[in-house]
Amino acid sequence: MVKKSVLLLPCVLLFALGNVQAQGSESQPRSEVARVKSDKPIEVSLLADHLQPGLETALVDSVLMDLDFEELHPADEIYDGWNTDYVKAYANVVLPETYTIDVSDFVMPIEGRLTSHFGYRPKYRRMHKGADIALHIGDTIVAAFDGKVRVRSFEKRGFGYFLVLRHPNGLETVYGHLSGFLVAQDEMVKVGQPIALGGNTGRSTGPHLHFEFRFLGQEIDPEEIVDFNALCIKEDNYVFSKTNSEVAKQQKHAASSHTNGGVKYHRIRNGETLYSIARKTGVSVDKLRKLNNIKKGEVLKVGKTLRTS
Ligand SMILES: [Zn+2]
Description:
There is one protein chain. The radius of gyration is 25 Å and the shape is elongated. The protein is 27% helix and 28% strand. With 309 residues, the protein is an alpha+beta fold. The N and C termini lie far apart (64 Å). α1 (2-24) packs across α3 (40-49) and α1 (2-24) packs across α4 (56-71). The chain contains 8 helices and 20 strands. The protein has helices spanning 2-24, 30-35, 40-49, 56-71, 222-225, 246-253, 274-281, 285-292, and strands at residues 98-102, 114-116, 119-121, 126-128, 131-134, 140-142, 147-155, 160-166, 171-178, 180-181, 188-189, 194-197, 208-215, 218-220, 226-227, 232-233, 237-241, 257-260, 263-267, 305-307.
C-alpha cells in the first residue's frame, strides 16, 4: 500500500500544477479569475511540503482514497467519456427505453421566482432548454446534487459563464449566465455546496440563472422534476422515458420529413411553398419539380408527400 502511495503522489502534484496553468491561461476578465478560489489539489501539495515524517503515510493514504473516488466519474456506467468542453457531448449515445433517476437529494440551486419556462419560443424560433430563475448579480448558486464539475466554460452568445455538473444519479445540471465560479474543473462537489455567483453574462436580458436538467445529453423540462412554487421536488424518483423525451417529441414534430429505403420524402404542411421546402430540405426547387413532376404555377396540396431524393 505504501509503495503504491509513493508512486501515485507525483500524479497529485502534477494535477495541481496543471490546474494552476489552466487557470492562468484562460482569457477571462481579471475579476472572474479572482473569484475562483477552490483548488483542492493545490492544498494537498502545500500540505505535503510541511509534513511531519510520521504523518506522511496517513496523509498519502487519504489522498489515495480521494483519488480512487475522483478517478471514476459520476454515472460512469451509463456515460461514455468525460468531455470538458461541451454541454451536449453525447451524439452517439443509445438512450435506454426508461431510466429511473433518484432525485430525492435535490436542493434548489437558488431559491427564486421562475421567470421563464422550458419550451419552444416562437419569438426566437428556438427551444428554451431550461428554466430561468430570478436572482441578483452576485447571489450564491449551489449544486443541485452531489456531483463533479464536467464543464467550466464561457459562451459569449450563449450561456455566458457556465457550469455543467454530472451527478451519480445519471443527471447532468447546467448553470448559465454566471458572474463568477467557486469551483474548479473536475472538482467533486456536495449537494448544496456554493459553486458559482449569479449574473447576467452571455445571451441574457437580465440577471437570472438559466438552469437545465439533462440525461445523456437530452434536456428535461425542469418542471417535470421540480415544483418551482414549493421549491422542492415533485417525486423522489423521476422516470426518464425515451418515448416521452424532448428529442422524441421533436422527432415526431419533424416526422413529416421521413426516409424510406434510401429515398427521402417530405410531407407538405400548411403554409409551405416549394421554396420553403427547398430551404428546409436543402434540395433545390428545380430538383423538387423534376423529382415530383410539378409544373410551374401548380399549387401544392397540404398532406401530399414529395420525394426529396
Ligand atoms: Zn434560460
